[in-house]
Structure formats: structure tokens, C-alpha cells
Design a protein that fits this description.
Length: about 130
């Protein structure tokens, strides 16, 4: 569910509230987000409607999605860069943008995103399905 944070937010993150690893990251970001620069939207909330955003549930589940105040969408590691910048970790973001580091982070995230449901114990039959 989206939290109203005023008009000053810098990035909206669409996270899977049923993913234990994802929730740890979100809890840390909420704690660090003292200036309320982040809008948090849980895609696992029963009231969440992907179609309100012009996307499918599968798109939201495939990789982390973010939205900027101008309405543009970002995905993958770029979402994390924006989230960390929003909570004041600019030097870490600068490091994450270096070409070699960026490549490794992007590759690692793509592997994680593809296997996230299995890695977090959310596959019931060997095949992971999105509800």
C-alpha cells in the first residue's frame, strides 16, 4: 500500500511485501528515510492494483520497479541507487555507478531477480508462479 509522504518524495519503490529479504531492505530504508524522500508501495498488499500503474503483476514481480516524481519508471539496480541517494548515501551510489562495479551489480541483481522466489522459499512445486 502506498504511503502518503507529501509532494517532496524523490523516488517511489514498488516492493514485494511477501519477500523476507526484500522486507529487510525496506525496513532499513524506512528507518533511514528520516526526511520522507521515499514513497513505499507494497505490491503484495491486497489493495494494490498493477493496472493503476499501466503494468502487470508479472512486471512488478520480475524485478524491482521505481517511479520518479515526473512519472518516469526505473528498474533493477537503478532503483536501489535512487533509494540510497534519497537516504543520504551519495558516496555509496557514486561507487555503484563506476563501470566495473555497475556491471557486477547489474549482473548480480538480474540473477537474484530471476531466482528470487526460489531463493526466498516461495516456490511450492519447483516452479515459481506469480499470483
Amino acid at each position: 500500500m502506498s504511503e502518503p509522504t507529501g509532494d517532496e518524495w524523490q523516488v517511489e519503490v514498488f516492493y514485494d511485501g511477501e519477500c523476507p529479504l526484500c522486507l529487510r531492505e525496506i525496513r532499513m530504508l524506512r528507518w533511514m528515510d528520516r526526511k520522507k524522500n521515499i514513497r513505499f508501495t507494497d505490491i503484495a498488499d491486497p489493495t494494490f492494483r498493477p493496472s493503476n500503474y499501466g503494468k502487470s503483476k508479472q512486471e512488478f514481480m520480475a524485478e524491482i520497479q521505481g517511479r520518479l516524481p515526473d512519472g518516469s519508471w526505473i528498474t533493477g539496480v537503478e532503483v536501489f541507487r535512487r533509494l540510497y541517494a534519497a537516504v543520504g548515501l551519495g558516496p555509496l551510489v557514486a561507487l555503484a555507478r563506476l563501470p566495473g562495479v555497475s556491471f557486477v551489480l547489474d549482473l548480480g541483481y538480474r540473477i537474484f531477480a530471476k531466482n528470487r522466489l526460489r531463493l526466498t522459499g516461495r516456490c511450492s512445486t519447483g516452479a515459481c508462479e506469480v499470483n
